[in-house]
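Troubleshooting: if your tokenizer reports a length mismatch, compare your output against this known-good record of 272 residues.
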Amino acid sequence: MTRAVLLAAVAGLCAAGGIAELAMLPPRRRHRAAQRLRGLVRHAAAGRRGGGGHAARVDAAGLRAGLGELMLVKLAGVPAGALAALALAPAAPGRLGAALLAGLPLAGFFAPDLWLATRARRRARTIEAEAADVLDLLRVALGAGLGPWRALGEVGRRHPGVLAGELGAAARRVALGVPAEVALLRLERRCAAAGIPALTATLRRADRLGAPPARALAALAEEARALRARRAAEQAARAGPKIQLVVALLLVPSVLLLVAAALVPALTGASL
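Known-good structure output:
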């Protein structure tokens, strides 16, 4: 508890020194520093608006939560990390307790971002694995005479995968009156995987110009199959060293133990 009070006092002194230094600056530099500080606070509170912002990460992870709920979880992680640090700091040796008091609240704040990135990465791999089958089904639906948005809705209704579900959700948004461009942008954000921007571009052309997308969808399906085969080859290449490590650490010692168990009685009997 004494360390926590000491750290809080140091933080207060640093804040007071920063405010005093800010007050001593010339008016122009003070205004510039205040604008920069406001930008940092706004960035921490709402996240970036670009492709790497918190809202895009939430969509890429496939969550229905809003940005405010994410920030609430991040802010709740700070006191949770502080409580964990206060519980672990007395038992920590040396200066590790102070490091825990400083690091665990930060870890609690950034842990949701790490979880979102991991979930988005897994979701992207799932979408890439499903893309070829979903695109073939979409091409068949369009070839049967359905319109692009109705075909998306049928694919979402008949296929159980993640990508098909997002295509069906985009079709339902358009049916409820959402502009097609907005629905396609939302689809890109929620399916941040390889091949999805090309798919949305094909759907835009089909919606605006009436261009038949069957040939483009067939090409996209072939690219998805090639990507899936390349990923499988990469996984097989990474599995080779792991298998060799298992053989070296488990199978070889077990075989040597069996050989030793067979040789020891014979050597013992020969010595007697």
